[in-house]
Write a structure and sequence with these properties.
With 553 residues, this protein is an alpha+beta fold. The protein is built from 18 helices and 23 strands. Strand 18 and strand 19 form a beta hairpin. About 4% of the residues have low confidence.
């Protein structure tokens, strides 16, 4: 479940048989780390295909299912399986490995499964091991007879015979995979983990949810849980015998894995493992130290290993600004005013005093970045989500209009900007605000941050409330431009920011498989429409937005 949680699953469905009451005792609120769990009892064991058919009535018509056999432990990147399945959407995509004891799944040059267990005599170009982890469409379930005890293997073979290409495979050799379907195999894995722990001489550790594997990888090298514990202990200055527990937190959209570390009756910190391919992730620690030095509230950094891409930082808890979205206005206003004060301190910092020799930032907002954001919007939202392809003449006019928007924003004063200042990136602890997820910080327009926070698709404002907060920030500023122009710049930057956000929702929801991001599209497109109607220079974007908006009413 930890492995699946990191891949972004939105709910769990668990088939039970022996001692079903134990599951109810361990999960009385039917959720795990905030993700719902549905239990589906099998009085008679139905095997893997029968078990899938047993949950059919719990699924939507076009819902994809990530199936994970209960007798395997793995830490390989499930995102590769999800992406491969999303690309072709066959009835099933199997996670395979190129080595192992049973290389009995054959794939052809197109990645389609052409034989299983040498049943069909189609050798293909490669024989692989089936991990017992796979993605399926609900259409596959329609070919399974209800109540029949049957494995998925015969079902896959029947579908291959009926139409080649309905079952595909993706070879994932990174990370680890273990079959623990027997007592001997289970005990062997326990011995391996204990041996690895002893060889490191580390302290004690505990793992939540039944001892599942929470280990990320360090490049191509496997990182055992004990190695993470050792790093956390060293970063926190804890004695080697301190008992720590590592619990994975829900996946976010930034190629990072988060774990809450707890010890000594409730003390806690956050361990982060990040993907160095996204270079901004490596900048987080130094940025945090810097902005704390200029009195911008952010988590303290206790340890950072840029080689292993690990970081331990202060635990800000689970309550963010978004949590107050339905609170009375006076409560929300007070917290947003504190957030705007923090943002203003960041924006007011003198560029000439920035310690560029110590703190790296992403390239600042320029013509190329603004172009990338609008292309991102058009590709992943307008085309990908809405299925709209503008006529060439309209596309050319829209590009000219958006290029002029970028030029207008580029003409505003440059300052440090958070770049993703929205309600879920502001934590609340004891009534105070703390900024997080600022790894994309760069130089740009303060109006981009203001648009991000006050036109946030995650948290709605009336226009009166929005302008009240904008006026509060204006009162903090040096009032170098008059209020009407200040408001116009805000709406323009809001339009730019919302294009980027909608592009991100489309990309993360459709391409990366984090489908919860798609839920924010209706409010995002509504906010974009409100913004462009306040700006007379964006008539074509307004027309396009109105077409998109009709799809979400």
């Amino acid at each position: 479940m930890e492995h699946l949680l990191q891949a972004g699953v939105e709910r769990f469905i668990v088939n039970t048989h022996h001692c079903p009451e134990v599951y109810r005792e361990h999960f009385p609120d039917r959720q795990w780390h905030g993700v719902p769990i549905l239990f589906c009892h099998e009085p008679i064991l139905l095997d893997t295909a029968g078990g899938l058919k047993n949950i059919e009535n719990l699924l939507g018509e076009d819902e994809a299912i990530l199936c994970y056999n209960g007798d395997v432990i793995a830490d390989f990147p499930l995102q590769r399986l999800i992406e491969a399945h999303e690309m072709k959407r066959p009835e099933a995509t199997l996670a395979l490995r190129s080595t192992g004891p049973l290389l009995n799944v054959d794939i052809d040059e197109k990645g389609e499964v052409c034989d299983i267990r040498h049943t069909l005599g189609n050798a293909g170009i490669r024989s692989c091991l089936f991990t017992g982890i796979y993605a399926v469409e609900t259409t596959l379930l329609r070919s399974i007879e209800a109540g029949r005890v049957e494995s998925v293997i015969p079902v896959f073979i029947r579908r291959i015979i009926e139409k080649p290409g309905l079952v595909c495979g993706i070879v994932i050799d990174e990370g680890r995979w273990h079959d623990i379907g027997s007592i001997a195999e289970y005990e062997a894995l326990k011995t391996e983990i204990k041996r690895a722990s002893a060889s490191r001489g580390g302290g004690s550790s505990s793992f939540a949810a039944g001892g599942g594997d929470v280990s990320p990888t360090d490049g191509g090298r496997i990182m055992f849980p004990e190695e993470l514990i050792d790093f956390a202990q060293a970063s926190l200055g804890l004695p080697g015998l301190t008992l720590l527990e590592l619990v994975p937190l829900p996946v976010r959209g930034s190629d990072r894995s988060f774990f809450r570390i707890t010890w000594n009756d409730g003390a806690s910190a956050i361990l982060v493992r990040y993907d160095p391919v996204r270079v901004e992730n490596a900048y987080y620690a130094d940025i945090a130290v810097f902005i704390r030095s200029i009195n911008v509230p952010a988590p303290a950094i206790f340890g950072h290993d840029p080689v292993r891409c690990l970081m331990v930082m202060e635990d800000m808890g689970n309550i963010d600004l978004w949590s107050f979205r339905t609170s009375p206005w006076d409560v929300r206003r007070a917290l947003y005013c504190k957030t705007l004060e923090a943002a203003h301190r960041l924006h007011a910092f003198s560029i000439k005093d920035f310690p560029s020799e110590k703190v790296r930032l992403m390239d600042g907002f320029d013509t190329a970045l603004y172009r990338w954001e609008r292309d991102y919007f058009r590709e992943h939202f307008v085309g990908g989500v809405c299925g709209i392809v503008p006529e060439p003449s309209l596309a050319k006019g829209l590009e000219d209009e958006l290029a002029a928007l970028a030029e207008s924003l580029g003409g505003t004063e440059s300052c440090l900007v958070h770049r993703d200042l929205q309600s879920q990136n502001v934590m609340i602890r004891e009534g105070e605000v703390f900024l997080i997820d600022f790894q994309g910080m760069r130089f740009g327009s303060r109006f981009y941050d203001l648009g991000s926070l006050l036109n946030d698709p995650y948290a709605a404002f009336s226009e009166e409330e929005l302008l009240d907060l904008l006026g509060f920030y204006y009162g903090l500023s040096k009032k170098d431009i008059k209020w009407p122009l200040f408001v116009e710049c805000f709406w323009k930057a809001s339009a730019q920011r919302l294009m980027q956000a909608l592009g991100a929702y489309g990309f993360l929801g459709r391409t990366k498989g984090l489908r919860s991001f798609l839920d924010h599209i209706p409010s995002g497109i509504s906010n974009l429409h409100r913004s462009v109607t306040r700006v007379s220079s964006l008539p074509l974007l307004r027309e396009l937005t109105e077409k998109c908006l009709t799809l979400f009413k």
